[in-house]
Write a structure and sequence with these properties.
The complex is a heterodimer of chains A (416) and B (153). Chain A is an alpha/beta fold and 416 residues long. Helix content of chain A is 39%, strand content 16%. In chain A, helix 2 runs antiparallel to helix 11 and helix 6 packs parallel to helix 7. Classes of the chains: A alpha/beta (416), B alpha+beta (153).
Chain lengths: 416, 153
């Protein structure tokens, strides 16, 4: 957040120390040191997360909520402790407001299917911004296709910022939900979420936030935000893949129909009837990703042990440092320069396609993302087919930014 | 081969020239076959127009689209090579091309054709980019077959 002070107290957070926890960062690719600038796609995993998962799987693992044996009890305890860790991370009031999912995508699909679909009549509206990731677009398109819901798109400003007023203006008497990214995966834009929620609630409309980027870079307090649903994923938060979580207000979760059907989500099944378990079990059919849930908790513990404000200041320093340098190149157009933005740098390169740029960067050891970033409506908004994106995480350094900028200049010399 | 050599081979002058100044770029009014290709990975699109005469010969060909240097150069080179060829020859060339971009030998092609196609051979060192090179060819084939839009993913 640019609101964070740029000067950090000495030794509050040292990226060079943190880097040592991420073994993969010391490897080379094509004989060059790796500069991993693609953490917005998926972050690398620190040793404590991997160790925790290994130790749990090799020492305490069994299925959860089923057996009466020792290991099942231990595993259940760890799994539920992970839920408590997520609760605390989001400052939710109750652990039963946390549903484990496969990731952010599944969390949003769960809300679409279990919460919103039964509440949608033809012509009802869903408000979303043009900077949404496809995972916060397609589940709502399903309701448009299947039930005649209308998608109301809120534009961003030319600098990539999103105004709460603009969201508010799109919310009308037929709006059933507002679905907005906490932080854009392309522009880095941070949404004025609290104000969006307050304004939507004033009209009786609930709000879902896609927190897949936001939960990584910003403090999240679902009670302070008063948000109805908050979805995030583990693998962008230095945790494993295959695990994410949905926060939902208890009253909403209790009112929702089940998502998947299977074991664990029922109270009683007979040949003719079925009754469902209470949340969160109602939404966790089948054996959950147990080791991954424990890994997610370890990842949350890992980032929580750091001075998160200092981490954010470090990431924003890298963003500013990189932005400053690429803007000096008159063939680069930065997309997304909101005042309030996180450490994501997307840009277009004149006369050079993002995939060609990314290929050349790759051979210099620099991993960036190129393409539409699963945000095609946003690409259309800015009139580009694709962009190159560098994203900065807690373990990145200014040296890596230098390598990135040098590689960019090399791309120009080859392609330009 | 050093990495730089790999890059220089991939982005050699012939390829950059084709991508900057694509041949046969635009629509074809008297097209008998058209096909649209899409690469969902990058969002690149290409449209191929073919005018096939009663003797099954490609009298004219054109393409439209936006994309990376590789996909544009490949489309341009392809159109250049296909004018005047029979549909059978086009498919044979495509078969050879698909071998080349995978780093395999393209037996059965005329020496001159193989040499022209080999400028795209550098792509075999960049497996993530092979789809960029093959999009136009797959689209051409689906145009001739009148099938659904080609997709490389």
């Amino acid at each position: 957040m640019t609101a964070q002070p740029k000067l950090r107290p000495l030794a509050a957070f040292d990226p060079l120390v943190a880097r040592k926890d991420f073994e993969i960062l010391s490897r080379r690719v094509y004989g060059k040191p790796l500069a991993y600038l693609d953490s917005a796609a998926s972050a690398q995993k620190p040793r404590p997360v991997l160790d925790t998962m290994y130790d749990f799987a090799s020492g305490e693992y069994a299925n959860v909520h089923r057996g009466v044996h020792y290991l099942s009890a231990t595993a259940t305890e760890r799994y539920e402790a992970a839920r408590e860790t997520v609760r605390s991370f989001l400052n939710a009031a109750h652990a039963d407001e946390i549903v484990f999912t496969k990731g952010g995508t599944e969390a949003i699909n769960l809300v679409s299917y279990s919460y919103l679909a039964p509440r949608i009549q033809p012509g009802d509206e869903i408000v979303l911004s043009v900077m949404e990731h496809h995972s916060n677009i397609v589940p709502w398109h399903f309701l448009r296709e299947r039930q005649g819901a209308v998608l109301r798109w809120v534009d961003v400003n030319d600098d990539g910022s999103l105004d709460a007023e603009a969201v508010d203006a799109a919310v009308g008497p037929k709006t059933k939900l507002v679905a907005i990214a906490h932080m854009s995966n392309v522009l880095g834009t941070i949404s004025p979420l609290k104000e969006i929620v307050a304004r939507a609630h004033a009209k009786g409309v609930p709000v879902l936030a896609d927190g897949c980027q936001g939960a990584v870079h910003l403090p999240v307090d679902v009670r302070d935000l008063d948000i109805d649903f908050y979805a995030f994923t583990g693998h962008k938060l230095y945790g494993p893949t295959g695990i994410g979580a949905l926060y939902g207000k208890r009253a909403w979760l209790k009112s929702m129909r089940p998502f998947n059907g299977g074991g664990e989500m029922i109270r009683e099944v007979t040949r003719d009837a079925i009754s469902y378990a209470d949340p969160p079990a109602r939404f966790e059919a089948g054996t959950p990703p147990i080791v991954e849930a424990v890994g997610l908790a370890a990842a949350i513990d890992y980032v929580s042990a750091l001075d998160r404000a200092a981490v954010a200041a470090h990431e924003n320093d890298l963003l500013d440092y990189a932005t400053e340098q690429v803007k000096e190149l008159n063939w680069v157009r930065v997309i997304g320069e909101a005042k309030d933005k996180g450490s994501i740098l997307s840009f277009e390169t004149e006369g050079m396609h993002a995939h060609d740029v990314a290929t050349i960067l790759d051979r210099e050891g620099v991993a960036v993302r190129a393409g539409h970033h699963c945000a095609q409506p946003l690409m259309e908004r800015f009139g580009v087919a694709s962009t190159t994106r560098a994203s900065f995480a807690l373990y990145n350094t200014r040296d890596e930014v230098d390598v990135f900028v040098a590689a960019l200049k090399k791309a120009r010399s080859i392609l330009g | 081969m050093t990495m730089d050599q790999g890059l220089r081979e991939l982005y050699q002058e012939v390829i950059l020239d084709h991508s900057r100044h694509p041949r046969h770029f635009g629509a074809l009014e008297d097209a008998t076959h058209t096909g649209e290709g899409y690469n969902p990975l990058c969002g690149d699109r290409v449209k191929i127009y073919l005018a096939v005469d009663p003797q099954n010969r490609i009298g004219d060909i054109a393409f439209e689209g936006k994309g990376c240097a590789i996909s544009q150069a490949s489309a341009s080179l392809m159109t250049d090579m296909l004018v005047g060829r029979s549909v059978d020859e086009a498919e044979k060339l495509m078969g050879g091309f698909l071998h080349l971009v995978k780093g395999e030998s393209a037996n059965g092609l005329a020496e001159e054709d193989r040499e022209r196609l080999e400028v795209m051979g550098g792509i075999s060192e960049f497996p993530m980019r092979v789809k960029c090179a093959t999009l136009a060819w797959h689209t051409m084939k689906s145009a001739l077959e009148g099938g659904e839009a080609a997709k490389t993913e």
